Amino acid sequence: MPKAKTHSGLKKRIKITGTGKIKRGHAYTGHLKTNKSHKQNKNLSKSGLVHDTDAKRISQLIAPMK
């Protein structure tokens, strides 16, 4: 069985917290910010956590990174 490789695109987009959770950025922040409210832009700029139901799938993609 070959060695598992970390997904190169994903490793640039996430970080692992001290407790082992996966931290991510929000979508819808790339452009057209003038159409969004100030409140929406503020909340989108903060980081979020990957949901528990997706964490197993994503941690398999980043297994060697851990």
From TrEMBL:
Protein name per UniProt: Large ribosomal subunit protein bL35
Region (Disordered) residue spans: 1-21
Pfam families reported for this sequence: Ribosomal_L35p
Keyword annotations: Ribonucleoprotein, Ribosomal protein
PANTHER family in UniProt: 54S RIBOSOMAL PROTEIN BL35M (PTHR33343), LARGE RIBOSOMAL SUBUNIT PROTEIN BL35M (PTHR33343:SF1)
SUPFAM superfamilies given in the database record: L35p-like
Similarity comment: family membership: Belongs to the bacterial ribosomal protein bL35 family.
InterPro entries named among the record's database cross-references: Ribosomal_bL35, Ribosomal_bL35-like, Ribosomal_bL35_CS, Ribosomal_bL35_sf
Secretion signal, residue range per the UniProt entry: none
Listed NCBIfam families: rpmI_bact (TIGR00001)
GO molecular function: structural constituent of ribosome
Family matches, as Gene3D superfamilies: 4.10.410.60
GO BP, sorted A to Z: translation
Source species of the chain: Anaeroplasma bactoclasticum
GO CC, alphabetical: cytosolic large ribosomal subunit
PROSITE patterns associated with the record: RIBOSOMAL_L35
Name of the gene encoding the protein in the UniProt record: rpmI
